[in-house]
Design a protein that fits this description.
With about 325 residues, the protein is an alpha+beta fold. It has one domain (about 1-305). Helix content is about 25%, strand content about 20%. It contains nine helices and ten strands. It has helices at about 1-15, 30-45, 60-65, 70-75, 180-190, 205-210, 245, 275-285, 300-305; strands spanning about 15, 85, 95-100, 115-125, 135-145, 145-155, 170-175, 225-230, 255-260, 285-295. The strands form two sheets. The protein has an eight-stranded antiparallel beta sheet with strand order 6-5-4-3-10-9-8-7. It has a two-stranded antiparallel ribbon with strand order 1-2. It is globular and about 45 Å long.
Length: about 325
Amino acid sequence: MKFLTIVLLAFVYSGVSSAGFSLSSNYQNLSGCEKQSILWEEVEKTQHSALPEYHKFGALQLLGMTVQEMTKKKSLNSDVAPKKWKKFLHRRGSVAKVKIIPTESSSYTGVFSGAECALMRLSITYRPTKKRKFAPGLALKVLRNGVPSANVSALYRLDGQEDNYNFFENPLSNIVPIGRDIGLKLVHGIFKRVTDYPEELLMTHFGDLNAQGEKVSSPRAPRQVFFVPNPKLEGSSDKHDVREDFHKIPAGTLLYSIYAVAQKHSKFNYYDYEDENAEAFLKDSVKIADVITTSPFLSSEFGDTGIFFRHEVRPKK
């Protein structure tokens, strides 16, 4: 009974819960830009008048994650979180409207061929402490006509970048090395309920359908990409609330350039992925697109608890 009480308390009190935002029955049939407008209106309506504090991430939050239905993260094709969905990681952040501009030489298909209406959320994994360092991350949602959105999240490393608070210091990727400390191993175990490789997110659905919702005859998507930050966005490495940095970025700013890892590495065994592999793969990558803001960044309740980013995961063996 005592254990059950702890679990229930963890589930009820330790996560940021979805406010139950709902979409119209015909939402999925709309154009990508119409969907973006609907989601952005919710961001604007629920904008924080003062930035809410970051909450700690510890044992109770880990317990809460164990009882949450993680399969929804891979199976739910929705742009809003299900009712009572709790956000234990990346709880607080900022969202902006963005567009994807491909390079002329890119051969990748689907939304990699360009998308005018997308959303990007920037956040840190958890409140930094002496043990848990500053860990930047992003989530990209590309809205498409009449079909579900394409979603991916990216990190630098699971254990972050030490005490450097410059959010744009390092490139972020959809694949990161497996964490080594006990807390990261526990999180790895939780997510292994739905995938044999929690540290890798797939992007095949980015190449299958374009922004117009049209099926591609010969889809081509990279297995791994790096989101390389615009060097002009360098911020202070000192401790501060990075959401204030995001809010200073104007519309029309190059945020990230997307680099695809060379195809020859597509069969690499990512169970053996280490920091040195990440550095080598980045050097052996080619630029395929730019991510450019089309609005300022806003911090809001909908951006924190309402918007939902689906994960495409590697199937279990």
